Structures are given as structure tokens and as C-alpha cells.
């Protein structure tokens, strides 16, 4: 298989006589370099990647950002709540927005919404990344084994995928997360809840990528380079790891970038239903759940909703651009 020729605008308008005179050393490009050139041309995907990087930096440096621009996420500001009038609404316009509280404050308790949105990104991104990593690891392993070995191995793994795909994941997640005690497996508090959510979301989502990798492996195992490795006496583990896995990195990376926003939404849904990370830890889904009782104060629901929307949109745009860059025939 030959890689498509990348022609730059300068090369398209070059002087034909330059070919006879010589234009210097000609260097080939790897598949990664060609994919990076395609990706740089997609301004929308680059914009999505920039937003993703900024979100990750915001989650990593959340304490520093809050110290500079906000107040602690669980600190009450009762003096800025209308307790005398009985409305328990934030004092001031637009939900109490000011230089001290960039996104306003919560009704009833006066917690800083900006700080809680920033800290909520840590929980959402942490659970989404680790759940995606678990799904990709299990799905890639099972898919490449099923596609390469075939026969009864493929039949068993395929039926296992069907069972997991038919499993009521949301109902199971609600039931499991709702009965987990405060301390188990040597863990407790938020660490235990995050570990349970990562396991539930990641372990039961692997069949999707498993089917994709299985289909790609069925195609790759009949290629000439695999036959050449067999003829040279290469063992099956060597063929799987050295020959097939590098050629599957494109679909793996693309699916991972598209699975992360799905896991963010799933975590937000569980927190919204009250079975995610427990209060007072800030989560985007938990903030939306609390905002339902104050539907007359839209700012309380607007900011966590926008945080989820921007995060999911950025990952989807970057994932679509990455897919086009790695496999332009899929356009």
C-alpha cells in the first residue's frame, strides 16, 4: 500500500525547469508526518485540540486558578444571600457575578460557582480518561485476539461482546454505585467512588472498541507483511504486538478521543442521578442536579451545563479531525 502524495502550494506552482536543475535532497515522510500535516490543515480540529489542552491544564492547576480568581469551592458566603427577604437568592445582578465571583454564587449557601466548575473538571476528566483507558485496553486486547486467531476463540469473544452490549449498563451502574459502602477494598471517600465509576464505565464499554479492532484485525491478518512474518518463522505473539498493533493505533486513537466525551456525559448523568461522587465534592453533574430545585435562577444551571457542552464538543471536533487525518478515505 502506498501513502498518498502530499503536494504543498509551493510545489504546485514550482518552475518545471527546477526539476532538471535539481532542488536539493528529497526526503520521504512517514505516515505520522503526513497525518500531522493533514491535521494542521483542519482548523476546526486544531481549535478543538486547543480547548482540550486548556481544559486539562485547568484541571491540573485548579487550586492555583481558584486561589487567583475565586474562593474555595466549599466555602459559604451567607452574607451575599438574600436571607432577610426569604428568597435565598444571591444578592446582586446575574446571580451575584462580580470580580470576586466570576460566575456568580449558588443560592442558599453562596458557594462560588467558578471554583466549583473548575474543580468539577478534575472529577469529570479523571473518570473519563481512566475509564477510556480501561475500555481501550480490554477492547483492543480482546478484539485483536478474536480477529487474529478466529475459529472458536473468535466465536467465544464475539458472543461475550454481545452479552456486554445487551447489558443494561445505566441500571447496573445506578444499582452498584448506590450500594457501595463508604469504605471498601482499602479505599474510602471520593477515591472509592471514583474507582467504582471508572470500573463500571470502563469495564462495560469495551465491546464497542473491541468490535472495531476485531474488524480491522480480520483485514490486516491477510496482508502481505503478516504472511511475510509467518514465512520467516515469527511467532504469533510477535506478529500481534509488532506487526498488527502498530497498524491499529489509528483506529484506537480515534475511538479513544470519541469515547472520552461519552464517558464525561455518563459520569455527569450518574452524578445528576445522585449515585456519582458524593457532595460536597464538586462535579458538573452534581451541580446540575442541585440546580433543578432553583430553575428560576438559570445562572446556577447555565455554567456547569456550558462546561459539559464545551468539553464534549471540543473532544468530538478533535476526534473527527484526527479520524480524517489518519484515514482520509473515511471522509
**Radius of gyration of CA atoms, rounded to a whole number:** 25 Å
Q: Tell me, briefly, the overall form.
A: elongated
Relative strand content:
under 5%
Helix proportion range: 55-70%
Q: What string, H for helix and E for strand, traces the elements in order?
A: HHHHHHHHEEHHHHHHH
**First-last Cα distance:** 19 Å
Taking the sheet with the most strands, its summary is: 2 strands, antiparallel
Task: Give me some keywords for this one.
mainly alpha; elongated
Structure description:
- The model has no long low-confidence stretch (mean pLDDT 80).
- This protein has helices at 9-12, 17-21, 31-41, 43-60, 62-69, 113-149, 151-165, 169-179, 189-203, 206-220, 224-231, 236-247, 249-272, 284-291, 298-326, and strands spanning 183-184, 187-188.
- It is mostly helical.
- The protein has a two-stranded antiparallel ribbon with strand order 1-2.
- Helix content is 66%, strand content 1%.
What's the SSE blueprint?
Elements: H1 9-12, H2 17-21, H3 31-41, H4 43-60, H5 62-69, H6 113-149, H7 151-165, H8 169-179, E1 183-184, E2 187-188, H9 189-203, H10 206-220, H11 224-231, H12 236-247, H13 249-272, H14 284-291, H15 298-326
Antiparallel strand pairs: 1-2
Short description:
The protein is an all-alpha fold and 331 residues long.
Amino acid at each position: 500500500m502506498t501513502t498518498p502524495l502530499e503536494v504543498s502550494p509551493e510545489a504546485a506552482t514550482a518552475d518545471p525547469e527546477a526539476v532538471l536543475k535539481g532542488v536539493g535532497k528529497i526526503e520521504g515522510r512517514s505516515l505520522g508526518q503526513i497525518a500531522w500535516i493533514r491535521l494542521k490543515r483542519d482548523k476546526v480540529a486544531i481549535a478543538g485540540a486547543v480547548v482540550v489542552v486548556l481544559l486539562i491544564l485547568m484541571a491540573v492547576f485548579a487550586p492555583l486558578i481558584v486561589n487567583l480568581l475565586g474562593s474555595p469551592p466549599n466555602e459559604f458566603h451567607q452574607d451575599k444571600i438574600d436571607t432577610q427577604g426569604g428568597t435565598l437568592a444571591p444578592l446582586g445582578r446575574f446571580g451575584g457575578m462580580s470580580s470576586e465571583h466570576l460566575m456568580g454564587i449558588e443560592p442558599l449557601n453562596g458557594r462560588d460557582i467558578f471554583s466549583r466548575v473548575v474543580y468539577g473538571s478534575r472529577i469529570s476528566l479523571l473518570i473519563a480518561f481512566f475509564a477510556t483507558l480501561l475500555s481501550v485496553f480490554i477492547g483492543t486486547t480482546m478484539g485483536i485476539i478474536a480477529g487474529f486467531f478466529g475459529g472458536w476463540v473468535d466465536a467465544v469473544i464475539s458472543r461475550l461482546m454481545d452479552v456486554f452490549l445487551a447489558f443494561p449498563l445505566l441500571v447496573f451502574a445506578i444499582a452498584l454505585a448506590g450500594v457501595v459502602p463508604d469504605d471498601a477494598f482499602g479505599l474510602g471517600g471520593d477515591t472509592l467512588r471514583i474507582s467504582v465509576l471508572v470500573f463500571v464505565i470502563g469495564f462495560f464499554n469495551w465491546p464497542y472498541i473491541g468490535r472495531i479492532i476485531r474488524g480491522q484485525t480480520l483485514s490486516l491478518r491477510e496482508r502481505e507483511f503478516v504472511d511475510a512474518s509467518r514465512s520467516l518463522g515469527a511467532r504469533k505473539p510477535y506478529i500481534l504486538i509488532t506487526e498488527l498493533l502498530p497498524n491499529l493505533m489509528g483506529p484506537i486513537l480515534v475511538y479513544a478521543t470519541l469515547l472520552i466525551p461519552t464517558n464525561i456525559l455518563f459520569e455527569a448523568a450518574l452524578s445528576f442521578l445522585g449515585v456519582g461522587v458524593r457532595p460536597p465534592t464538586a462535579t458538573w453533574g452534581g451541580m446540575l442536579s442541585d440546580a433543578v430545585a432553583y430553575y428560576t435562577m438559570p445562572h446556577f444551571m447555565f455554567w456547569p451545563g456550558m462546561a459539559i457542552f464545551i468539553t464534549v464538543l471540543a473532544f468530538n471536533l478533535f476526534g473527527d479531525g484526527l479520524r480524517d487525518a489518519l484515514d482520509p478515505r473515511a471522509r
